[in-house]
Amino acid sequence: MRRSSEDTKALILAAARERFAADGYERATIRAIAADVAIDPSMVMRYFGNKEKLFAAAADVDLRFPDLTGLPRESVGTALVTHFLDRWEGDEGMMILLRTGVTNEAVAERLRGIFAAQLGPLIAALHDDPSQAPSRAGLAASQVLGMALCRYVLRLPPVVAMSREEIVHWLGPTLQRYLAE
Amino acid sequence: MRRSSEDTKALILAAARERFAADGYERATIRAIAADVAIDPSMVMRYFGNKEKLFAAAADVDLRFPDLTGLPRESVGTALVTHFLDRWEGDEGMMILLRTGVTNEAVAERLRGIFAAQLGPLIAALHDDPSQAPSRAGLAASQVLGMALCRYVLRLPPVVAMSREEIVHWLGPTLQRYLAE
DNA sequence: AGTGTAGGCCAACAACTGTTGACATCGCCG
DNA sequence: CGGCGATGTCAACAGTTGTTGGCCTACACT
């Protein structure tokens, strides 16, 4: 029985996500991805055109920011932390963006775009004076991304060892202050 | 007039630092570094053996943590922020470690070592109950590294636009809470 | 002036990369 | 049964990378 075109395309994409998340853009080779699916590298080219397009498909993730407007104002901090922990542990998308964004200017630009288009407005809606919103969003991003960096990328042992509750307990008030105070 | 051996070696090292800081390990090629110094790539090999050793020389940075024990207890937070801002703006060492540590396991391991050997004890000395020190150090690292990531690596515009004073104003209390409360 | 040597260049290597085009084979449909 | 399109393989390409060894050449010293 042969696989359908869509099936192998999905297999390739899954393998590519893993490789890009684990190794970054340069070290995730098309040959390695193809080997993971036990397939010829030329298949990857046929289905995705070239490496850049394959990466674009693999890195097409939706941050799915939650709607904070319905929440009691004093709990936006914890809400954001828990959401991001879920997001990071859910799939490899976040890891891909961070691992590659650090050395790939195009991805960094994309992160700036996501940040400005999605997180900024979200924060702006919370506050009376919207002029402070970008700075506040930036501060929040720094703490959230820093936690992700230490826990999921650099794997600092004490940070890995912390429970979700501990992280929420410590980061919640920080984000609360950055966002709403 | 010919250059002395030590001179060119220093030139190569300086160019390597720039390239590794700007491009990361993979994309910083020996040929590019050599071209920056207007020299033949084989010279780089002669002076540093191979690329790994060149990188080791370029990434041999000292974090130079400050001595917090003499400080009034309530100002350790701001002291740590200002120190790290200085450190990041001083030379390329920090940038090299972060850019490469994200995709290079050996550098990540080294960061874990630095963290455990230098930041951990520093924090432990501040607190009565030393069992909490690793978690606290991890939290502090997450905020400091996250700020560096957003400001110097990803260059999120609002974070870049913030002044040193603003950053100290916002991060100081956060670190103070993580470290000493 | 002759010579040894430190500093530097050149050409080439093997390995690896993304990418391409020609060829094989399975399975459906007439 | 025969053919044809979809699925997949093979071999090779051109470029880049780290790395090597042989060669040149300016300069200090006798």
Which key terms come to mind for this protein?
181 residues; Arc Repressor Mutant, subunit A; mainly alpha; homodimer; DNA-binding; 10 helices; 2 domains
Give a brief description.
Two copies of one chain form a homodimer. Chain A is mostly helical.
How is this structure best described in words?
The termini of chain A are far apart. The model of chain A has no long low-confidence stretch (mean pLDDT 95). Chain A folds into 2 domains: 5-58, Homeodomain-like (Arc Repressor Mutant, subunit A), CATH 1.10.10; 73-180, no CATH class. The longest helix of chain A has 23 residues, at 5-27. In chain A, helix 1 packs parallel to helix 6 (93-101), helix 2 (30-36) packs across helix 3 (41-48) and helix 7 (105-124) crosses helix 8. Chain A has 10 helices and no strands. The radius of gyration of chain A is 19 Å and the shape is elongated. By secondary structure, chain A is mainly α. The interface between A and B is large, with 45 and 45 residues. Chain A binds a DNA duplex (30 and 30 nucleotides) through helix 3.
Topology at a glance:
The structure is a homodimer of 181-residue chains.
Chain A: H1 5-27, H2 30-36, H3 41-48, H4 51-58, H5 76-90, H6 93-101, H7 105-124, H8 133-153, H9 157-161, H10 164-180
Helix pairs in contact in A: 1-2, 1-4, 1-6, 2-3, 5-10, 7-8, 8-10
Chain A binds a DNA duplex (30 and 30 nucleotides) through helix 3.
